[in-house]
Amino acid sequence: QVQLVESGGRLVQVGDSLRLSCTGSGHTFTLWNMGWFRQAPGKKRELVAVISWSGGSSFVADSVKGRFTISRDTAGNIVELQMNNLQPADTAIYYCAADPSRFVGADDYRYWGQGTQVTVSS
């Protein structure tokens, strides 16, 4: 059974940092692209960041560029999102996703986690 499990979401204050982690199991994600999406209440799901299977390419949305960084471990089954200087606009459910070919410009990734809530309080 393929699973993506996110962790690390919680309530933080403006300006705080948070590190989200996603662990994949039931499948080898070494050759898969892995990304982070988020969905705020009443808004469409949006891509936050994605990293290629090799780790050699990555994309970070303009809305978080300079504050968020995506990385993955060498084995390929763990992807992390380092979030700095968090703002209330970053409040959302953050989802991990994996796909063998989808990268930027698509949100129909094959596998999804259940999500982890990040709330930034002012």
Task: Give me some keywords for this one.
mainly beta; 122 residues; 7-stranded mixed β-sheet
Helix count, DSSP H or I runs of 4 or more residues: 0
Query: Total strand count, please?
Result: 11
Q: For the residues shown, what is the average pLDDT?
A: 94
Range of helix content: under 10%
Order of helices and strands: EEEEEEEEEEE
Shape: globular
The percentage of residues in β strands lies in over 45%
Major sheet summary line:
7 strands, mixed
**Span between N and C termini?**
40 Å
Stretches where pLDDT is under 50 for at least 5 consecutive residues are none
The chain-level structural class is: mainly beta
The whole-angstrom Rg is: 13 Å
Give an account of the 3D structure.
This protein has 122 residues and is mainly β. The chain is 0% helix and 48% strand. The chain has no helices and eleven strands. The protein has strands at 3-7, 11-13, 18-25, 33-39, 46-51, 58-60, 68-72, 78-83, 92-99, 111-112, 116-121. Strands 2, 4, 5, 6, 9, 10 and 11 form a seven-stranded mixed sheet that branches. Strands 1-3-8-7 form a four-stranded antiparallel sheet, with no helix packed on it. The radius of gyration is 13 Å and the shape is globular.
